[in-house]
Amino acid sequence: MGKKHQAASKKSKHAEKGAAAAAGSSGDAKEERQKGGKQQRRRNKEHRWAVDDLERELAAVGLRIKSIEPDGNCFFRAVLDQTEGEGGDHLGLRRRVMDHIEQQQEHYRLFIEDDEPFERYVSRMRKEGVWAGNLELVAASTLLQRNINVYQAGQPVWHIKFAADAPVLHLSYHDGMHYNSVRNAGDYGSGPPQPLRLGGGGSGAAGPAAVAQAGRSFGS
Fold this sequence. Notes:
By secondary structure, the protein is of the alpha/beta class. It has a domain at about 40-85 and about 130-220: Cathepsin B, Chain A, CATH 3.90.70.80. It has helices at about 5-60, 75-85, 90-105, 105-110, 120-125, 135-145, and strands at about 65, 145-150, 160, 170-175, 180-185, 215-220.
């Protein structure tokens, strides 16, 4: 075999190996995408089950879940739906809540988790799309002078208390990652929600029927 033929043969073998490696890499990537897709579908299904369970619990007492956009701003959007109705300035509310936390840092810095510096936490939480946590719940309750009831599937109602006679905001919380707004079953308006009218009996301590009695409390 001549030198040219040997070189061509080597080049062909290298190309075959490269193609095989690329095919293997492509196959691995495809498998990872499929695996990721399955995991996401499973999470979506579990989330749907949790929403369905809570929808049934709330329907038993004459309430419904109003869906809020899942864009990382859902807590602020849900609070605005409860205070103003649709289309409120969620970035403005986020800014006001974080201003309040910053101004009252001697009180709130004690609740920062994971040893994150207070200034870094506030800076991070000011950004659009960053999920709100328990600290923002309590701060919003204090800033807006509202009590907040948080409903979760199969759990006692969580009460964030500002004052005994303060108006109440009603939110649902799903899978530890998303907030929706809770309204009367027949309330499909775009403005502020109608006052809640609880009916039905619910079942067990976990049912949301006992809004004023059961559940955890987190004072501000």
